[in-house]
Please model this.
Amino acid sequence: MVSSVGTTTASTSLLSQAIAAAKSNAAANAASASSSTSTSASSSSSSLSSLGGNFNQFLTLLTTQLQHQDPSNPTSTDSFTAELAQFAGVQQQVETNTNLTTLISATQDNQMASAVSLIGKTTTASSSSLPLQSGSASLSFTAPQAEDVAIAVTDSTGTVVKSETVNASAGTNTWTWDGKNNSGTQLSDGAYTVAVEGSSTDGTSVALSTTITGTVTGVSKGTTGVNIDMGDATIDMSDLTGFSTT
Model:
């Protein structure tokens, strides 16, 4: 556990950095959520369309060549065989891409079916997305030494709602947020973003990675795999570090 500390010049500097980092993380999370699906889908569609276009273009050129070649001086068998091999290669690429897309979709369906068993469990994940559920949120971080550590939380718009400097011990520390902003107003449950700033052993400020804790409420398909929903917060399943039934 950690405890709050008074304000000093050093802690004020750390808090400013934590606030800036939290805003940056919030912007990055928002951009990723809004663009990753469309970008991935359009990229895949574009690649397949390009291969399909090459396939059709090659077929047109090949049949045109056969129609207009001089019967008394036909294309050499070596050249014709090479062209047929290229034709078959392009066709195989088109079919491979199509089958790979189907395989990825099937794999995600299997992952989703398995992930359903996590619903209702308390889960930890390496993430800056902090789920506020039932008016409470919790995270842990590792401090390189006993020191003052600054924590900042932003909402989905990047507005800072909670900032605090705490006294951390060397090693793993936990911090629990009661969902109240800096003015003491209780905020609604939802997805927030957190950043933690500390100091290394040589006194240099450093961003500390956070492990958030939340209750799984659902699963959904992502662009690269399956996402775990903790209320309104969405976490990539690959970022999970553990779970329990309580």
